[in-house]
Amino acid sequence: MESSHQQQQQLSVVCISLHETDRLRVMNMSSEMVDSLRAVIQSSWTRGIRSEGSYAVSYEFKLGGRPWLGQAEEAVDARRLIARILGFMLQRGWVLVVATDVSRKEHEKDSLFFRCQAVPPQAAVTAAISFNMTDRVRVIDGTEELVQVVRSCIQNCWSRGLQGERIYKGVPEFKMYGRPWEPSGEGTMVTRMFVAQLIGALDGAGWEVYTSVDISYGVGGNSSENGRTPIRSMDSWVLRPKP
């Protein structure tokens, strides 16, 4: 009888994709893996699963709430959910190949494609960093050390410095001076320099950006503030300890 790992290898490439404001679909995933994924969703997404079933060549979960709209606490929880799903896939030996947008449809989000690795990785703990509004950085499920790395990088590497910090929906949020996520002119390159330095700081602390993924629906995660027009949402990073 074939082992579960051998069966996984035969499935070749697994896809997990995000749709509309509340759908998650999986393709080429064994029934045992679907059952395990269901448990991950139920333990990570407090609003639960409203319904599920076959959808074309995939299996679909319809989640409670609107996780991909990216508003308020759902924005934080949706990123936590994706990070935990990626951690679950790593634990099962499925390594992310690419997170990519494969459709020109409006408000489309990324699809995640995985391949099976011969030996499951050891580092399956995940955290997330999200970039919000025009000037915010949030650290989701990160260690105190990781939070401090992000704080120090903003203080020391962002030319305008750290304006303030708070706990937002249970996670640390840093507010930077200026509008780094809405740059213009030379500011476009200053922002990119900061992002490069942040990646370097994470690397030095033993973390790597496992993937950058578009989770939110259109302008989700960037609610209008003080009457300003909402801007498009940005990718979120899922981090893992360096192998």
Number of strands: 12
Radius of gyration, whole Å: 18 Å
What level of helicity do the residues show? 25-40%
Order of helices and strands: HEEHEEHEEEEHEEHEE
Describe this entry's structure for a reader.
The chain is an alpha+beta fold. The chain contains five helices and twelve strands. It has helices at 4-10, 31-44, 72-91, 144-157, 187-204; strands at residues 13-19, 23-27, 49-55, 58-63, 94-100, 111-116, 127-132, 136-140, 162-168, 171-176, 207-213, 236-241. A six-stranded antiparallel β-sheet has the order 3-4-2-1-6-5. A six-stranded antiparallel β-sheet has the order 9-10-8-7-12-11, with helices on both faces. A hairpin with a 3-residue loop joins strand 7 and strand 8 (136-140). Helix 2 packs antiparallel against helix 3 (72-91) and helix 4 packs antiparallel against helix 5. The longest helix has 20 residues, at 72-91. The protein is globular, with a radius of gyration of 18 Å.
In short:
The protein has 243 residues and is an alpha+beta fold. It has helices spanning 4-10, 31-44, 72-91, 144-157, 187-204, and strands at 13-19, 23-27, 49-55, 58-63, 94-100, 111-116, 127-132, 136-140, 162-168, 171-176, 207-213, 236-241. It has two domains: 4-116, Gyrase A, domain 2 (2-Layer Sandwich); 127-241.
List the topology elements.
Elements: H1 4-10, E1 13-19, E2 23-27, H2 31-44, E3 49-55, E4 58-63, H3 72-91, E5 94-100, E6 111-116, E7 127-132, E8 136-140, H4 144-157, E9 162-168, E10 171-176, H5 187-204, E11 207-213, E12 236-241
